[in-house]
Design goal:
Strand content: 15-25%
Radius of gyration: 17 Å
Largest sheet: 7 strands, parallel
Number of strands: 7
Order of helices and strands: EHEHEHEHEHHEHHE
Distance between the termini: 31 Å
Helix content: 40-55%
Number of helices: 8
């Protein structure tokens, strides 16, 4: 799929770092941001995937950098942020998208190691990303942090304790960051995609009766317009808010 080109130059001159951008929602956002004029750092654990996305952006005339990044490791995150700022002269937008979703299972039968890994990537990893990016955003006089949340973080469901708890924590982190950074013209908002056809939630699983009845089941590219809206809003605008593409509450 080529770089999105129908967004004008909403992000002309901006620099964005997007975690988990080797595939799925992160990839779609990276392509859309590049199409809107941003220089993009594609960060994810699988080097071949982010290199492929960056190459596609550059082939279409955009600017991109690929950095293998494990958000569960602070030094890895700091390196990605520093390399982005060094290559493009700063950082304006951070999209915290990297995440995992372990198999369903009630707490009593859950795997403690997988439970901890989920929190480490989905929540602690988000903290690492924000912590590393904030000094660079402040140096630019403002910016955006967009966290990719989940309706499960607002309402939960049996068998989803690790994922729901991590996303609930991410939503609270989003609100606290919004409060802390309001005076720095840095907006921090949550984007809830709802069910999306990705490796984490393939179409077949999402179509099981009772799973997402009545929901808008979308492709990753259909999440990108809301991300573009949040990334291109005025600095110091809406913050500590949740924006959802779900049809039902949460």
């Amino acid at each position: 799929m080529s770089v999105v080109t129908n967004a004008g130059q909403l992000l002309d001159g901006k620099v964005a770092l997007i975690t988990g951008s080797g595939r799925g929602i992160g990839r779609a956002i990276a392509m859309a941001f590049a199409g809107a004029g941003a220089a993009v750092c594609c960060a994810a654990r699988t080097r071949s995937e982010v290199e492929a996305v960056a190459a596609e952006i550059e082939a279409a005339g955009g600017q991109a950098l690929a950095v293998r990044t494990d958000v569960a490791e602070l030094t890895s995150v700091e390196r990605a942020v520093d390399e982005t700022a060094a290559r493009f002269g700063g950082l304006d937008i951070l999209v915290i998208n990297a995440g995992v979703s372990p198999g369903r299972g009630e707490v009593a039968e859950s795997d403690p190691e997988k439970w901890g890994q989920t929190i480490a990537i989905n929540l602690t990893g988000a903290y690492y990303c924000a912590r590393a990016a904030i000094p660079h955003l402040k140096a630019r006089g403002g910016g955006k942090i967009i966290t990719i949340g989940s309706g499960m973080g607002h309402r939960g469901a049996p068998g989803s304790s690790a994922y729901s708890a991590s996303k609930a924590g991410l939503w609270m982190l989003t609100r606290v960051l919004g409060q802390e950074l309001r005076g720095d013209n840095i907006s921090v908002n949550e984007l809830i995609p709802g069910p999306v056809n990705t490796a984490m939630m393939p179409r077949a699983a999402a179509r099981e009766p009772g799973t997402f009845d009545g929901e808008w089941f979308k492709e990753p590219e259909e999440v990108a317009p809301l991300a573009l809206f949040l990334a291109s809003a005025p600095d110091g605008g809406q913050t500590a808010q949740s924006f959802s593409l779900m049809r039902r509450d949460g």
